[in-house]
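Final report, Chapter 2: Outcomes

The project's central promise was a pipeline that accepts a single protein chain and returns its three-dimensional structure in a standardized token representation, suitable for archiving and comparison. That pipeline is now operational. To close this chapter, we reproduce one record exactly as it appears in the project archive, with the input sequence first and the structure output second.
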Amino acid sequence: MYDVIVIGGGSAGLAAALTLGRALKKTLVLDNETNRNRVTQHSHGFLTQDGVTPANLRQKARADVAKYDHVSFATETVTCLEKVDNCFVVTTDSATYQARKVLLTMGFQEKLPDIKGIEDVYGKSIFYCPWCDGYELRDRQLVVAVPSVVMGHMSKLILNWSKDIVFCALDGQEPASDVLDYFRTKNIGLETKAISEFIHQDGNLLAVRFEDGTELVRNGGFIGISVDTHFDFLTPLALEREDSGKIICNDFGETSVSGLFVAGEAKGVMPTQLIDAASDGNTIAKFAAAQIIEEDDNQ
């Protein structure tokens, strides 16, 4: 019986495991190494680790955590998570484990738009988050392919890094009139034609091809993605969620299922930076450990 099983071995999960190990809690980290940022060449914004590759950061983090005897690791995919009485039963593709508490840090499932070439350029010259990768794309000819409803916000944000921007509406719709006025004022381009292909060389964007065959020369950009945390293994728990799909939790990261906590990107419906995920993992792990300490004290 583990005190805590952490599902997900990214920044949030490993930060949580480090805190739990230092709290002397028997912890198991389950991770299948399908982290969302594995396509990223370099990660930024993490103090002392700026520019590190995600793989190298995970390697260093695991080495930090592995120093603590109370923490162990297993490279497995979770297939089912249930609560039986006061115990969680975690089933993987090769074993079954039990724990008093479970901490979900698996991030979310990401879906890219169905555009030819997207998987080749994503993480190399096309990105999702301007806070993460805007600096590397500064002063480039950018394409920003997002739903029309977010164009107003994104245009003001991305102008911080480049003045040569063309927006493409993933939904084929024009943005609101005030956004169109802003585009004209700031000389921002707009295309409502559907993108059929990202033309590239070794993942480096060269141009955008539209469904009518026309092309637009661009050498970098940002794209909207869809995300969700409706993992099949969570189905038996019937977690309470907001209309957006976000898992409902209290201020301590505890979900509608007592003893089940969530931290990092799995906590919301928006991607976060690694430093944010690590911070949240550390914080929520303290709450989970404190709950165990309180329960043991009352026995």
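Archive annotation: Helices lie at 11-22, 54-66, 118-121, 130-133, 151-158, 177-186, 274-297.
This record, like all others produced under the grant, will remain available to the consortium after the project formally closes.
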